[in-house]
Please model this.
Amino acid sequence: MSLTVLMNAGPWLSVPPPGYGGIENVIATLVPELRRLGVRVVLASVDSSTLPVDEKITVFGDGQFHALQRPYNQVCGISQAHLGGVVRALHARDDIDLVHDHVEAVGLATLAAMGPQAPPVLHTLHWDLAKHPDLYGNLDGGDRVRVNGVSAAQLARAPRALREHSVGHVHLSTPLAVDADRRPRPDKGDYLIILGRINPGKGQDVGARLARRVGVPLVLAGPVGPYHRPQDLAAAGDEARQNPDVRFFYDEVAPHVDGDLVRWVGTVAGQERDDLLAGARAALFPLRWEEPGGTAVVESLALGTPVVATARGCLPELIEHGRTGLLTADEDELADLLLAASVLDGDECRREAARRFTPAVMARAYVGLYEQVRQTASRP
Ligand code: UDP
Model:
């Protein structure tokens, strides 16, 4: 296939990401499969990205994740600088058939503003947009900009303007160690895990409370704001509290973290992350937001770990209640489900992931969307 795609990963983290990084993990999973299908990939990211691609466009040397707690205008400045680099590159060449954009509204608006010179754009929504109806207010790319989401639930909640531009949804696939069959499986331990950013939407406070109520050990893995290790957060002092996720952690989660039954281990990566996830009795998602794509949900399945979750966002699309996990709309009922999770069969979870959520399945779906976008984008 002769297709050249500019994959815009943004300036926040390298690809693959050092640990936490939902969007960057998706890109790291997607790109090798696209290249296997013959797509040329030009990656717009940061220079420290190590993902093999055909070409790189970079503005920043390293991921700017640490700057996300700075004032909003500075954060936008970083986005704009990165997009400036992408747009300059696009102006200078005519071999890009399509831009696959993953960077929130700023990226899309900038590309749309290039007008008819811009290649067609497929923008993948990674967030729950119901609370941000204005974020994409200026969607003026007309036919040239198309949108896809990572779940049907996410698209259904997106602002109308976006839904009118949508070409469908593609479930996130499972990054990295999908091929769990080739690796020795650690025995299941007697603990639960919540893998993800520490954030009110992800509900670590609920999980910690419930785990203590039922007396099952719980591991919380993930960054608190820009802080990846407990010692980094401790060293940051009071200034760190400017970050809302840090405040959430201190006010709502930390009181339950006793270092024994409930532990926060910081960000985990690579083999350590996979082993921790594979060894858990269940992965818990006590969500308080409408989870748009749930990479960590799919990763749990791929590693043979059943999911216990609130039935929000994409969860009912990813998990079959009673087979690959247990879902409930009732926060209190989660405690009972935690205890019942051991009846679920981890191998069934792996089979489901191998059938529905492989990188190859995701890449084929995206190539289909690229074709659709290119056919419908009118060039002057
Ligand atoms: N993640 C990780 N280490 C951590 C916490 C998270 O590698 O300590 C990864 C996780 O495996 C997943 C991604 O970060 O691939 C989070 O993506 P998800 O869609 O679950 O959440 P969000 O993008 O909303 O943060």
Remarks:
- The two ends are 24 Å apart (CA to CA).
- The chain has a mean pLDDT of 89.
- Residues 19-22, 25, 175, 195-197, 221-222, 267-269, 273, 293-296, 299 surround uridine-5'-diphosphate (CB under 6 Å).
